[in-house]
Amino acid sequence: MSEALKVEDLSVHYDTREGALQALRDVSITVPEGGIVGVVGESGCGKSTLINALLQLLPENATIPAGRITLQGEDVTRAGTRRLRQMRGQEISVVFQDPMTSLNPVLSIGRQMRDIQYRQQGSRAAKDSRSAAMLGRVGIPDPVGKLAAYPHELSGGMRQRVAIAMAALMRPRVLIADEPTTALDATLEVQIIELLKELQQEIGCAILFISHHLGVIAELCDRVVVMYAGVAVEEGPVADVFLRPGHPYTIKLIECDPGKLKEKVTDLPSIPGSLPDLTDPPAGCIFRPRCDRATEICATPPPRKGLNGAHWAACHHAKVDKA
Amino acid sequence: MTALLSLRDVVVEFPALRGLKALLAPPEKRRVRALDGISLDVLAGETLAVVGESGSGKTTLARAINGLVPLAGGQVSFDGMALDESPDWHAVRRRVAMMFQDPVGSLSPRKTVRDLVLEPFAIHGIRLQNRRDKAVELLADAGLGPDFLHRYPHQLSGGQARRVGVARALALTPALVLADEPTAGLDVSVQGEILNLMNRIKAEHGLTTLIITHNLNILRHIADRIAVMYLGRIVEIGPVERLLSDPAHPYTRALMAANPEPDPTARRERIVLKGETPALNARPPGCEFHPRCPVARPDCASRAPVLEPATTGGRVACHYPLTKETLSA
User: Fold this and answer.
1) pLDDT tens-digit profile of B158-171?
2) pLDDT tens, B181-224?
């Protein structure tokens, strides 16, 4: 299988008054054609920086000291402005977390969807009918009528469907979903996950699904990358990572999810301590200050230990899977 | 056990139209009912969790109890005292503390943590012998060290800001705490700490708490009873274990089943509800859940159910409540 999107040893630094903030360090992620890869991590793990780097929308104080991002074999970090404009929306598109802020409040849905097709040949009517067909596909009732509607006239769930329709409109090769269900209610969350699965089948695009919600990742993705403080600490097939996690951070993160505990407990697990200062990250393993298994060897950079097939963890103490 | 807080047929309305439109519209269209006849008791020492989706009226409920929105009908009584005829809110709020939704946003950005935790004393005109010691003591109770005293809200993480919110709520040793989404916006690894803190403080101070949440995962660990809201009404209320294991209302069941689990091997039998919650100004006739209900029968569209004791315990507003047999079928 070829790769739709490949991130190789990517580092992103931000220049700040305190020095270079190392938001991403040597992150590698591969999304195969038609695959769904999840990225899971908490606040400050570098999820947003990763998305901005993929789209080349990093702020001015960001630098990429090392690494490559290739979209279907083409290096995005070297692409010119013109080429990037072609890529965004056509070959790679994003569904953002909050559909109220990602849609333009003063333009009608139809106008915004026509704008996405600005590079396309065809009459206005043809573009509108294409938009309406896509709106209908994502489950919006009365799609033709909704073209004249403004975002505020739709409910939260409908707005997110519109955002997904826009992202899928040009049949991109890679769809980035940035916490698309976080702003939604539980019953809608399930509907949106089902919709993304169906669209992925139809369009055959690859999805990079970014979330802090372990349950959603477990449900939707084939592979998952666990990130902590700008570093990918573990990666593997969803079932392996969730059932036999190798990195202490992943183990803790899964333990912490209260949905995992079926009996009432008075003392809920948590991870003590806080994120390290990324302008001066600790030497060796990034999780060392909060890890209860840390020993002296952890002051040296941890190797990527293969656990079982494609499942690895960046930890000195990770045990190779016997199963 | 006696009820510390009781609500009877509480109605809260908001204006739906303004200006000339409102004058020309028929009276029933001028206002929407955000809460429509809520009756519930919060017993002394218990934790009641109110769950529901956006727009179900959870937050309005907390605000109505605290007098932040006026009641259009019904009554609220706290510790035997009716709160409807312009009560002395100053005195009431000394005993009913509120934790607002946004941990950082609910703190004044121009005050230090020290001033923030001492603010309740200033508002209620309480003189303190030693202000610094009190602030340190309150922060320590919420798990923060004295080094936080001189920080500003923007220098706090979400979890730390939430702890300051807890310290503020507890400053005047209230009897009842209304916590609006205490875990919203917090990472999973921090969530546990905050809930442990709330559980510990509740036990130490003998607090009664009403927790508003849409986080279904935490219910089992914090609540004694759950009330499920839909479109400004309670559709089911009962003990937490019972609602989680044998929900009687189809909406409760769909809500509990809609929660994705972090286990790739978990069985995914769930009711995926059709459509979305209707708007408050377009309430369906009969049972308001019937257009989305997977087990609705024809008469559900015409007869409105009322909260009645369920066979599985608790009370449910459904003509055809689910039983253990229908659940397994």
Assistant:
1) 889 999 999 999 99
2) 888 878 888 888 889 999 998 888 889 999 998 888 888 889 99
CA geometry: angle A270, A277, A6, nearest 5 deg: 85
**Which positions ≥6 away from B206 have C-beta within 8 Å?**
B45
Task: Please work out, in degrees rounded to the nearest 5, the angle formed at the alpha carbon of residue A12 by the alpha carbons of A8 and A14.
Answer: 180
Q: Would you list the DSSP string of A247-272?
A: SHHHHHHHHH-GGG--S--SS-----
Chain B contact for A18, CB < 8 A?
no
- DSSP 3-state helix, strand, coil percentages of chain B (rounded to 5)? 35, 20, 45
On whether the A3-106+150-260+268-286+301-314 domain is CATH 3.40.50.300, my answer is yes
Nearest-CB residue to B188 (from A42, A217, A261): A42
Number of CB pairs < 8 Å for A and B?
126
Q: Assess B273–A contact: CB distance below 8 Å, yes or no.
A: yes
Strand order in the sheet with A19-32: A19-32, A3-16, A62-71, A74-75
Count the helix, strand and coil residues of chain A and give each as a percent rounded to the nearest 5. 35, 25, 40
Which of residues A300 and B19 earns the better pLDDT score?
A300
**Tokens 């009190």 -> residue:** B134
B214 and A CB contact within 8 Å: yes
Q: Locate A43 and state its tokens.
A: 């606040």
Measured between CB atoms, which of B158, B262, B273 is closest to A259?
A: B262
Cα–Cα distance between A94 and A43 in angstroms, integer? 19
CB distance A220 to A278 below 8 Å: no
Checking if the pLDDT of B262 tops 90, the result is no
